[in-house]
């Protein structure tokens, strides 16, 4: 056992602090004002965005990191913790201890208190539930499980906070001899196969499928009789297919020539990266039989093609989820830009406010309603909308309304507002990133195949965006408020002439757009870091979506977000995040030169 130092310390979250990347934008705007009379406003705004992008590249925690993170998530991981599907360790509770279930805490306490022989016997025939064994695996993998000098069980998180088990209450009464629970190779092997044994006996197909994955990761130690017995009793087609593939891999490693050829032909339909590794290793060997070598070459081609298809499917899915976030942010900007003609540089900070509102709601639930903490997101979504909408309406009334018709002054004023909001957040929450945990029902991922895994939180964001777009289309086309917005957007003077209160519509529409930005921040909090610079990461892409899609056009924003999101993800894979953003900016500039009105032009007669 490893003895732990008994001097607790307070861990701190690291963050990247840098200089303000937009300090020179005001000077650029002053120079731009001198020749603005000669340059169209839309092209001038696009030039400002390009300059801002290049000044922020070196400092911003760009969204490519999010893509990279999710791309890694899409690929199957081979670690013990992942195969046990205990991904809830990434969620933060009030104690920052892994949120593994404690419904069968007695079994874990018995394991901790037992000697080597007792632990080995328990792992061979686990007395608790499948969930309690998953908890044990998670605690040991995260180095959180400890034993006191009196045999008590403790959990120690990365911040050196000590908690009693199973109630997970923080304690300052540190034992004089606190020892970490570690496993010898024999116990680790017993844990692996004990977990697989318990899961194979489960009545849930998902648990049995996890057992097959655990056995596949330790194929050299698997007893073929276990596979044969499990396959004979299996009634799930998906689990049966996994067992058949595992049996084929064993036959390929240990069988005679006819058995190996039959196994290779069966494995040719697989998209498991480990199968490809086995085939390539076999092809590298000398003295292969000609028929076996031909079968291996065909199987290698088939498996490689299937893995490539799965990989690109994952990339496209990641691009779609990124496009969904961009669309949520751009919808609000499309409304305000189309209605008011205002280039709102504080739109990114409204996204940030939505993310911090989500963080506050999470903390409220964890502090006052811990039993309902898993459902905080249902409250955070409307809260993020309302808080961002109210702040947006205040900005419209105080800052923007006195500057209507003065585009450059409005741009600089909203840029100043963005700096103020960022500094306020730093003063209130600090410059470090804050942690927003995924709710339990959005943790984990749906495994399409061995090489394609789709995270639930990304699936939820895509579905949420579809619902928001549908509601927004209904609001704009089927309600009186939407009719007023469309009327003011198409012809403000005529709308006033027929009695539409354009000033009130401006304020409410700006609030609607700001609220949509807040919901985008709520979605972003589920997939990325939440910090004071969050809005600056996405504001440029948001403006690009609006410019390409067409001012005030919802469907144009949808198509532009999909195009920019997917193409950006694909380009990042090939040339990197920085060059990908440069290429996108160049393409957008070329597109605007050919089609200044965007994908969809606004219809109507304007009275200037």
UniProtKB/TrEMBL annotation:
Membrane topology note: Multi-pass membrane protein
Protein keywords: Amino-acid transport, Cell membrane, Membrane, Transmembrane, Transmembrane helix, Transport
GO molecular function: transmembrane transporter activity
InterPro entries found in the cross-reference section: ABC_transp_permease (IPR001851), ABC_UrtB_bac (IPR017779), BCAA_transport_permease (IPR052157)
Polar residues composition-biased segments: 11-25
Transmembrane segments: 323-343, 350-369, 375-399, 411-429, 456-476, 543-567, 573-592
GO CC annotations, alphabetized: plasma membrane
Broad class of the protein's primary localization: membrane
Any Pfam family: BPD_transp_2
GO biological process: amino acid transport
Similarity remark: Belongs to the binding-protein-dependent transport system permease family. LivHM subfamily.
Protein name: Urea ABC transporter, permease protein UrtB
Organism of provenance: Psychrobacter nivimaris
